[in-house]
C-alpha cells in the first residue's frame, strides 16, 4: 500500500511569494511539505487578511476541500523555496478508506488545526495586544524555534504585518508593542528574525492579560 501511494505522489516546487492556491479555487490536491514553509491566510470581504498558520516540513494542507468537495477555504502561499508532494483527491480518499491508521492521522492533524484556530480566536477576544503578541511569539517559537546561545530564534522571516495579521492588530500597534518588548529585554529583532530572550516574561504577560498557557 505504501509503495502504491508513493508512486502516485507528484513533486511540485514553489518560489517564495508564489501562490499555491487561492481562497475559492477548486480543490483537487493534498499538499505535503517536503521542504520549505507555507503560510495559510484568509481575506475578509472588506479586504483585511488573517494569517491562520505557517506550516513547515512534514505538515500537510488542502485536505478540507478533498473531504467535502468544496472550494478552497483559504489561500496558501510559499514563503520560502518550497517543495511539496501532492496527492490527487481520488487517491487520497481511497487511501483513507483503506487505511484506518492514516485516516486517524488526518483526523488528529485536523483537530490540531482546529485547536490552534480556536486559540487564536479566543486570544483576540480575551487578551490585550501585548498578551496576544506574546502568545503568538511563543506559539511560533514552539513550531519553528531553534535554541541559540541568546535564546529561542524563530526560524522564519517575519514582518510586522505578518504579526499584525496573526494577532488581529495593526502594523503600527505591533511596532509599538514590539518596541516595549525590546526595551524590556524580552525579545531581540534582527532584520525579519525574532529571538525570544525571556520566555518566562512572555508567559507572565499572558497570565496578567487573563489568559492561560497551553
Write the layout of secondary structure elements.
Blueprint: H1 2-6, E1 10-14, E2 19-21, E3 29-35, E4 38-43, E5 49-55, E6 60-61, H2 63-68, E7 75-78, E8 82-88, H3 89-98, H4 100-126, H5 129-144, E9 145-147, E10 152-154, H6 160-167, H7 171-183, E11 187-190, E12 193-196, H8 199-208
Helix pairs in contact: 3-4, 5-8, 6-7
Describe the structure.
There is one protein chain. The protein has 214 residues and is α+β, with helices and mostly antiparallel strands. The chain has 2 domains: 2-123, Jelly Rolls; 127-208, Winged helix-like DNA-binding domain superfamily/Winged helix DNA-binding domain (Arc Repressor Mutant, subunit A). Helix content is 44%, strand content 26%. It contains 8 helices and 12 strands. It has helices at 2-6, 63-68, 89-98, 100-126, 129-144, 160-167, 171-183, 199-208; strands at residues 10-14, 19-21, 29-35, 38-43, 49-55, 60-61, 75-78, 82-88, 145-147, 152-154, 187-190, 193-196. The strands form 3 sheets. A 4-stranded antiparallel β-sheet has the order 1-8-3-6. Strand 9 (145-147) and strand 10 (152-154) form a beta hairpin. Helix 3 (89-98) packs across helix 4, helix 5 (129-144) crosses helix 8 (199-208) and helix 6 crosses helix 7 (171-183). It is elongated. The protein starts with a helix and ends in a 6-residue tail after the last helix. The mean pLDDT is 91.
Amino acid at each position: 500500500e505504501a509503495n502504491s501511494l508513493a508512486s502516485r505522489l507528484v513533486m511540485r516546487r514553489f518560489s517564495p511569494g508564489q501562490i499555491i492556491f487561492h481562497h475559492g479555487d477548486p480543490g483537487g490536491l493534498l499538499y505535503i511539505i517536503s521542504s520549505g514553509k507555507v503560510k495559510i491566510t484568509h481575506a475578509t470581504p472588506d479586504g483585511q487578511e488573517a494569517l491562520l498558520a505557517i506550516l513547515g516540513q512534514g505538515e500537510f494542507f488542502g485536505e478540507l476541500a478533498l473531504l467535502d468537495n468544496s472550494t478552497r477555504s483559504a489561500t496558501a502561499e510559499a514563503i520560502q523555496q518550497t517543495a511539496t508532494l501532492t496527492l490527487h483527491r481520488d487517491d487520497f480518499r481511497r487511501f483513507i478508506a483503506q487505511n484506518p491508521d492514516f485516516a486517524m492521522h488526518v483526523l488528529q492533524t485536523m483537530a490540531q488545526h482546529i485547536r490552534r484556530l480556536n486559540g487564536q480566536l479566543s486570544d483576540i477576544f480575551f487578551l490585550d495586544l501585548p498578551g496576544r503578541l506574546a502568545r503568538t511569539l511563543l506559539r511560533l517559537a514552539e513550531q519553528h524555534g531553534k535554541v541559540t546561545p541568546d535564546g529561542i530564534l524563530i526560524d522564519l522571516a517575519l514582518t510586522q504585518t505578518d504579526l499584525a495579521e496573526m494577532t488581529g492588530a495593526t502594523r503600527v500597534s505591533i511596532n509599538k508593542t514590539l518596541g516595549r518588548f525590546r526595551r524590556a529585554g524580552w525579545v531581540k529583532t534582527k532584520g525579519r528574525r525574532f529571538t525570544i530572550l525571556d520566555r518566562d516574561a512572555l508567559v507572565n504577560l499572558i497570565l496578567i492579560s487573563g489568559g492561560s498557557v497551553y
